[in-house]
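User: I'm writing a short methods note and want a consistent example. For PTS glucose transporter subunit IIA, I'll paste the sequence; you return only the structure tokens, no commentary, since I'll be parsing the reply automatically.
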Amino acid sequence: MTVVSSPLAGRAIGLSSVPDPVFSGAMVGPGTAIDPVREPSEALSPVDGVIVSMHPHAFVVLDGEGHGVLTHLGIDTVQLNGEGFELLVSKGDTVTRGQPLVRWNPADVEAAGKSPICPVVALEASPGSLGQVAEDLEVKAGDQIFLWH
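Assistant:
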């Protein structure tokens, strides 16, 4: 079982509230989403593992059980071409839960006309494989947001 932690402080709102059909329809996997506090922050690794994908707006950490956890920093933020995001690690790096991976400011993303909501997704997880999914509650960075069985 993998404990997945919130990469950010904010409000867990659930994937169905994400303003993007790919995420709200759980097409890439189940999970939840964080509506982050609007201040400069660091997105933290949600699990211990290896960075298998690293972009300014999104990253995937593969844990020791082969579970890939995607964190997407805002919606349509790929269109910002990395502006406002500072990578703190690289693809292939081994990271620990709670380690800062990207520095960014959700308020700047919102000012650029993009949603700062951050989906946190269990990639290709089977239906029903997640438990204790956080929705409709305040979370601190590092708080548990779901279990992956």
